[in-house]
Amino acid sequence: SAVISQKPSRDICQRGTSLTIQCQVDSQVTMMFWYRQQPGQSLTLIATANQGSEATYESGFVIDKFPISRPNLTFSTLTVSNMSPEDSSIYLCSVEEQTETEAFFGQGTRLTVV
Amino acid sequence: GENVEQHPSTLSVQEGDSAVIKCTYSDSASNYFPWYKQELGKGPQLIIDIRSNVGEKKDQRIAVTLNKTAKHFSLHITETQPEDSAVYFCAATPGGSYIPTFGRGTSLIVHP
Questions:
Q1: Which of A35, B9, B29, B62 sits a CA distance of 20 to 30 A from A16?
Q2: B50 by DSSP, 3-state: which?
Q3: Strand (E) positions, A1-114?
Q4: B41: closest chain A residue by CA
Q5: Is B28 in the A-facing interface, judged by CB distances under 8 Å?
Q6: Average pLDDT of B97-103?
Q7: Per residue in A55-71, pLDDT tens?
Q8: Per the CB < 8 Å rule, is B100 touching A31?
Q9: What residues form DSSP beta bridges with B101?
Q10: A75-93: per-residue pLDDT in tens?
Q11: Can you tell me the distance from the alpha carbon of B74 to that of B64, in angstroms, rounded to the nearest whole number?
Q12: What is the DSSP code (8-state) at residue A104?
């Protein structure tokens, strides 16, 4: 199993600013993902964080708004840029070691944009 | 792509009762069906999973059933306890994929 440390756990930000969320895993993992969970909603995949190359974004999410870095197999960051109140959500880092297996999640970052 | 429907969105039971949450999926290529529990302020955590070659799986008070023909699967919790109160998500993952599609979640409330 993988243990994921995600920081910060919560933040309140002014609109127009940016926030970078960090995800640190205790072991090397093949796949890392970033999800958004809006209040009372399901988990929506933002992108797959690829080690050493550009992230793969899902429909509706773009690199300019959600730049992602993954410098190695244990660490990734997600930046929420030029924030608006609609970006208020929980952002979750997730990792998987093989296909069709358990996904491990960080504790999430609860973001409020005012 | 895959589409997962989950019902009910909210489920309120008395301690000791059973709780059942149902999900349907659309992609016949899905082979892996995990269930996650999310407590307040935490990330989702796997509680049980089932693969397409199995019809039922049980782990103490929790069981999952799968009907591949009808494309539906269910989570059964018996003898519910207040600590079972949480949001539960079902998911379906196509064969060869890392990426699950999640249902919208069920908020389970167990009253003491």
A1: A35
A2: strand
A3: 4-7, 10-13, 19-25, 31-37, 43-49, 56-57, 68-72, 75-80, 89-96, 104-105, 109-113
A4: A107
A5: no
A6: 91
A7: 999 999 999 999 999 99
A8: no
A9: B92
A10: 999 999 999 999 999 999 9
A11: 6
A12: E
